[in-house]
Amino acid sequence: MAERYFCFEMMIPGRTIPEKWKIADKVVSNNNTFSYEIDLGVNPAQGSYQVTVWIEGKMSADDEEFMISDKKYIYFTYQAADSSVPLIDIHWNETNYIAKSKPGRLMYTVSYPQTATSVVTIDIMKDNNVVATREVTVTHGATSYWDYVFQAEGEYYAKLTWGQNRAITGTTPNPAIVTPAEGAEIPGTYTSGLLVNLSASGRSNNEVQKDKWISEINTRRVDCLLDAFNWVTNGWMVDSSGDTYLHLSNGASLTVNYAPFATINSNGQDPLYNGKTIEIDFRLSNVRDTTQILG
């Protein structure tokens, strides 16, 4: 019988070298479930913890090759009940080989017992350059997320800053690794030659910049004009399926600052003759006059 081992290592706040335990006495077989307790001591360090788990070993007794599985990451934050120390936890929900033009979910939590909410700034970076920024109001102790659509392959980190003079920061411990979108598509859309991509996923009326909707693909930026929103009965809403959408009502309007048929594209192709695909997902409710033009 081939031996396969469950392994993990733990990143502890304040330590630059992770502690690592290999559970040599736990032989893992298919569909086998077991637990392992980690003793953090009497006075554990406050901050963000990262646990990395993986399986390693031989697939069969005759195999010469030693296999190591993909690594999975578990994150949690410890803060004492009487603590006045601000804490930040920020990480990608999935880091292993996300396809280009697919969204990656950035999870973030800010905890500071002395106040209920704060305005924070989140930067997404690639090659040490900021490629996207968002300012949001967070509720302390609550986990929020940002579904960011990656437009190029490479490694992406994210940084959260807040506090006076933005002195308090947190950075994702691991990058999101984005691979070329070979055969990958945004569900229900075309990605070849994609020029504009606007997604409502992860948006909220609690954002500081809730009236900003921007498409950024490589060097192409398209801004939208969101006008006459009250951000109470309209704006970023969540439907019964849990999907976020932009709700227009009471005179609110959306203008996408993009003229698809105005100029010949960079490949010298005229969309009037070569075609262009425009896809918009929308839903109507409480229609009282079916003869009116949707515009």
Task: Please provide a written account of the structure.
By secondary structure, the protein is an all-beta fold. The protein folds into three domains: 1-78, no CATH class; 80-184, Immunoglobulin-like, CATH 2.60.40; 195-295, no CATH class. Helix content is 1%, strand content 42%. It has one helix and 19 strands. The protein has one helix at 271-274, and strands at residues 4-11, 19-27, 47-57, 67-68, 72-78, 87-92, 98-99, 103-111, 117-126, 129-139, 143-149, 154-162, 168-171, 176-179, 214-217, 220-227, 235-238, 244-247, 253-256. The strands form five sheets. Strands 7, 9, 10, 12, 13 and 14 form a six-stranded mixed β-sheet that branches. Strands 1, 2, 3, 4 and 5 form a five-stranded antiparallel β-sheet that branches. It has a three-stranded antiparallel β-sheet with strand order 6-8-11, with no helix packed on it. A hairpin with a 5-residue loop joins strand 12 (154-162) and strand 13 (168-171). The protein is globular, with a radius of gyration of 24 Å. The N and C termini lie far apart (67 Å). Residues 182-190 have low confidence and may be disordered.
CATH superfamily of the largest domain: Macroglobulin (MG2) domain
DSSP summary, beta strand count: 19
- Specify the biggest β-sheet: 6 strands, mixed
Termini separation (Å)? 67 Å
CA-based shape: globular
- SS-based structural class? mainly beta
Any idea of the CATH topology of the largest domain?
Immunoglobulin-like
- How many alpha or pi helices? 1
Q: Percent range for helical residues? A: under 10%
Helices and strands, in order, run as EEEEEEEEEEEEEEEEEEEH
